[in-house]
Amino acid sequence: MGFSRLIQHLMGTTLFGAWRYKQFIVSSIRNEFLARFARSKVGGLWMVIHPLSQVLIFALILSEVISARLPDIENKHAYALYLMAGMLAWMSFSEIVTRCLTLFIDNGNLMKKMAFPRICLPLIASGAVLVNNTLLFAAILVVFVALGHVPSIMALWLPLLIMLVMSLGLGVGLILGVINVFIRDIGQVVPVILQALFWLTPIVYTVRTLPETYRDWFVLNPLYPLVTSFQNVLVFGQPPEWGGLMGLVLAVAVTLPLALFIFRKASAEMVDSL
Q1: pLDDT value, residue 28
Q2: What is the pTM of this model?
Q3: 248 contact partners, CB below 8 Å, separation of at least 6
């Protein structure tokens, strides 16, 4: 069987198994949020308060330094808007990668004791991240309106961008999560890489503020077109960075099937190693 046919077979059987356990996936996502905020007075609002407070802290500290350099937008809160749009993209990616990194280690006992399609675990994690960031997006929109900025019709591209960043995060996270079962050093290295990647991505600054010598290097960052597209559609009223996104779509088309292939091949060995 050729590699392409093998991938098609794996994806078909995996999707079929996930569909059969769709109620398990949905109920697991719901139970996760219920358990997390069972005794909290504020409840699920903490999912929004934590990341939103982080964004606002960045905005308060850095806005006086960078806001004057933001072009194409007439709003005294321009930097806060720019930062929130970039952070929405970054949090979607980093959260799903971080969760997938330790997903199989954290659920080792469950994998040993229950018979269910193992692909349910990353799908549950992805669903929880999607719900979390959907609520965050709703909160950010409220803040946008409160600051006097209403996103243009270009914001309709946002669901597509969110699915792209989620797909990229799931593919990368799934590969790293499998490797982390066998080489635990991965779990220590990835957070450091994510921290570096955050500062190498134009989230708290714009590429135009960088010396021209370094701009071309920063543009090579695979997250650059994604973050810039979020900022374009939400803040500047411009279309996404289609040129860079096309390359990213191809990367996702390779990464996700590869992640699925590695995951299926290593499933049995993972259970023995946990």
Answers
A1: 83
A2: 0.84
A3: 164, 168, 222, 225, 226
